[in-house]
Design brief:
Strand order of the largest sheet: 1-3-2-6-8-7-12-13-11-9-10
Structural class: alpha/beta
Shape: globular
Largest sheet: 11 strands, mixed
Order of helices and strands: HHEHEHEHEEHEHEEHEHEHHHHHEHEEH
Helix content: 25-40%
Distance between the termini: 16 Å
Number of strands: 13
Radius of gyration: 21 Å
Length: about 475
């Protein structure tokens, strides 16, 4: 194919494969060489935690299928996985030293779905350790196993943590051209934050749209995996591949999903749409961030949308996360392979204390707070906190605002409005709308009600077409020979 393979969309890759100018194996070879050039060497982005040793073989198998007429949505497409998602013989570490050797031999349910859709698992991405729930003292994007993820738009100038978290490596990798798509996970802002920070499309699904089976848990009431991509179409393709009912995850049986979200792409969907925006969630007044959101809102209005000023209530403190972290971590560690040196959260804390500098450089304050909580799902205090979260985030929160103003969606900047829909389990999408003068990207985020991903894909494609502006990192721009 002509052009920059590192920036190619899924559609462009498949077109080149049809034309015979590109193979999956050739693309994997190109991306692997690029990762080796900029991940541990060069700017040392540390976005990819490890490459899949079987990726080349998987790509050759997908090429053979292609030659035999097999055409699946992600046929031959390399995808990166956040390193809290199990995949075959690759260790799943959550960035933690205690899990460095966590080889389960299993594929997470969503990884099985990716393989069924024809994808090639290229490798694992670095992340904020324990999905950014280890300590309140570490920069986003840091893990003991993977080091610090650097921002591809300013690896030498942007401060540590600016890359967003906790799916930091997934965001930086796709932005830097290491893979066309990646899977991140979110409990509260962890897809939206790195997607917007890296000028990507990020879709945080309704909790239950994607199985959590085979993903190291943080908080069962809020955890979900979701797509990160350079275009809305690619995000929709990836999302469709990983949605669906899983018998081992009861929450996936609670709503309707699709296997083809590209059918909802609609660049004219803004006409007649009604959005609400609380400017407290749209950047500081007078800032470049706010200016970019104001410009995007003006474009939405010119394309026929109504944008109303609304007041969105503040989310309750994250009490629930500490209880669910304790319960989920104990359950996961107790069933880990024999080689893993810890079997509970308490044992993890003790293990880290044996080598503070090497295993808990920034402390483990959040893990310590979680360890003090009850593991009982019927604990009265936990139940009360969860009931408060549901009430204040749904019927008194998102649902109330949407109903009062007859909204189709709520607007915000980046992940600034992520907490309330996260507690509700509701979906959001973020779309790049440019960058500040220092090069820091900005995203316009749209939130909807449960199971309204089709609406978000439609609105996202329209924003992308009329107000979108993805900024490509200078290091990912192909240089002439």
């Amino acid at each position: 194919m002509t052009g920059n393979q590192k920036e190619a969309s899924i559609e462009e890759i498949h077109r080149a494969m049809e034309e015979g100018t590109l193979t999956s194996a050739g693309l994997v070879e190109t991306l692997t060489a690029w990762i080796e050039e900029i991940n541990e060497a060069g700017p040392e982005l540390r976005a990819v935690r490890m490459l899949n040793p079987d990726a080349a073989d998987e790509a050759r198998a997908r090429d053979e299928e292609w030659q035999n007429g097999v055409r699946r949505p992600l046929q031959g497409i390399p995808v990166l996985l956040k390193d809290n998602i199990e995949a075959g013989t690759m260790p799943t570490t959550a960035g933690a030293e205690a899990l460095r050797g966590n080889v389960t031999g299993r594929d997470a349910f969503l990884v099985k779905q990716l393989r069924e859709a024809g994808a090639v698992i290229l490798g694992k991405t670095n992340l904020s350790e324990w999905a950014f729930f280890m300590t309140d003292g570490a920069p986003s994007g840091y893990s003991t196993v993977g080091g610090q993820v650097k921002h591809p738009h300013g690896p030498e100038t942007f401060e540590a943590g600016s890359v967003g978290g906790s799916s930091s490596g997934s965001g930086a990798a796709v932005s830097a051209g290491m893979a066309p798509i990646a899977v991140g996970t979110e409990t509260s802002g962890s897809i939206l934050s790195p997607a917007s920070a890296n000028s990507l499309v990020g879709l945080k699904p309704t909790v239950g749209a994607v199985s959590r089976n085979g993903i190291i848990p943080l908080a069962e009431s809020q955890d979900t995996a979701g797509p990160m991509a350079r275009t809305v179409r690619d995000a929709a393709l990836l999302f469709g591949a990983i949605t669906g009912e899983d018998e081992s995850d009861e929450i996936t049986k609670k709503g309707e999903t699709s296997k083809d979200y590209t059918s909802y792409l609609d660049t004219e969907s803004l006409t007649g749409a009604i959005f609400g925006i609380d400017w407290d969630y749209a950047g500081k007044e007078g800032s470049e961030e706010r200016r970019l959101i104001e410009e995007a809102v003006s474009t939405l209005r010119r394309r026929g949308a109504v944008v109303r000023n609304v007041t969105i209530p503040k989310a309750e403190p994250p009490h629930v996360l500490f209880y669910e972290m304790k319960r989920g971590t104990d359950a996961y560690l107790s069933a880990s392979p024999a080689e893993i040196p810890v079997r509970s959260l308490d044992e993890l804390l003790a293990f880290n204390r044996e080598d503070p500098e090497g295993r808990m450089r920034f402390g483990q304050t959040l893990l310590e707070q979680a360890a003090e909580k009850s593991s009982d799902p019927d604990d009265a205090e936990y139940v009360a906190f969860r009931e408060t979260d549901v009430r204040t985030s749904r019927e008194e929160g998102v649902d109330a605002v949407m109903a009062e103003h007859a909204l189709d969606g709520m607007l915000s900047v980046n992940n600034h409005g992520a907490a309330l829909p996260a507690k509700a389990g509701y979906p959001s999408i973020t779309i790049p709308v440019g960058a500040q003068e220092n090069g820091m990207p900005v995203g316009l985020t749209i939130t909807a009600r449960a199971w309204e991903e089709p609406r978000l894909v439609a609105f996202g494609s329209a924003v992308e077409a009329h107000a979108g502006h993805r900024v490509v990192p200078a290091l990912a721009v192909e240089q002439p020979n």
